[in-house]
C-alpha cells in the first residue's frame, strides 16, 4: 500500500470529512422527523441486518468466545444479534433525546429515585452522582 501523500491528507480533511458530516446531519434530520418508536424499530432492524455483515462483527464474535468460553455458538450468535439490535436502536434514538420527557406518565424511560437527582440539583451544594454507564448522554438529558 502506498504511503499517504500530503495531497491525500488534504483531500480527506477538506472534502471527505465535511461530506461525512453533511451526510450525518441529513441522516439525523431524517431520523428526527420519524416517530420515536418507528425510528427505534428501524434502527434495530438495520443494526440486525447490516451489523453481522461488517468485519467488526467477526471480531466481536471472537472476543465473546474468549470472554465466555462456556457459551455455545448459538448463544454467542444471540448475543451478537442483540448487540447489533441495541446499537442500531441507540443510534436511531439519539436524535430524539432532547424531546424525551423523563418525568411524565407514559415516558419510554422510567427514572427511579428522581427526587434524589432533583435535591442534588437544587440544594446549591456540591455532590457526587454514581450511576451505571449505559451511555454518556443519560445524565445530561435528565436536566
List keywords for this structure.
143 residues; 0% strand; extended; mainly alpha; 2 domains
Q: Describe it for me?
A:
By secondary structure, the chain is an all-alpha fold. It folds into two domains: 85 residues, no CATH class; 43 residues, no CATH class. 64% of the residues lie in helices and 0% in strands. The longest helix is centred in the N-terminal third of the chain and has 28 residues. The chain is extended, with a radius of gyration of 20 Å.
**What fraction strand?**
under 5%
The biggest beta sheet is recorded as: none
- What is the count of β-strands? 0
* Rg (C-alpha, Å): 20 Å
Low-confidence stretches: none
What's the end-to-end separation, in Å? 50 Å
Helix count?
Answer: 6
Strand-pairing-aware structural class: mainly alpha
**Helicity range:** 55-70%
Mean of pLDDT: 87
Described by the principal axes of the CA atoms, the overall outline is extended
Total number of distinct structural domains: 2
The sequence of SSEs as H and E is HHHHHH
What is this structure's SSE topology?
Blueprint: H1 6-33, H2 36-50, H3 55-67, H4 73-93, H5 114-122, H6 138-142
Helix pairs in contact: 2-4, 3-4
In a nutshell, what does this entry contain?
The chain is mainly α and about 140 residues long. Helices cover about 65% and strands about 0% of the residues.
Amino acid at each position: 500500500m502506498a504511503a499517504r501523500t500530503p495531497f491525500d491528507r488534504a483531500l480527506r480533511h477538506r472534502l471527505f470529512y465535511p461530506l461525512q458530516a453533511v451526510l450525518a446531519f441529513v441522516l439525523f434530520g431524517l431520523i428526527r422527523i420519524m416517530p420515536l418508536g418507528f425510528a427505534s424499530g428501524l434502527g434495530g432492524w438495520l443494526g440486525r441486518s447490516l451489523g453481522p455483515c461488517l468485519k467488526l462483527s467477526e471480531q466481536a464474535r471472537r472476543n465473546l468466545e474468549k470472554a465466555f468460553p462456556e457459551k455455545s455458538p448459538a448463544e454467542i450468535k444471540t448475543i451478537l444479534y442483540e448487540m447489533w439490535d441495541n446499537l442500531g436502536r441507540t443510534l436511531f434514538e439519539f436524535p430524539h433525546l432532547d424531546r424525551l420527557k423523563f418525568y411524565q406518565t407514559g415516558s419510554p424511560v422510567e427514572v427511579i429515585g428522581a427526587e434524589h437527582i432533583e435535591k442534588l440539583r437544587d440544594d446549591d451544594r456540591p455532590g457526587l452522582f454514581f450511576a451505571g454507564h449505559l451511555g454518556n448522554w443519560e445524565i445530561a438529558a435528565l436536566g
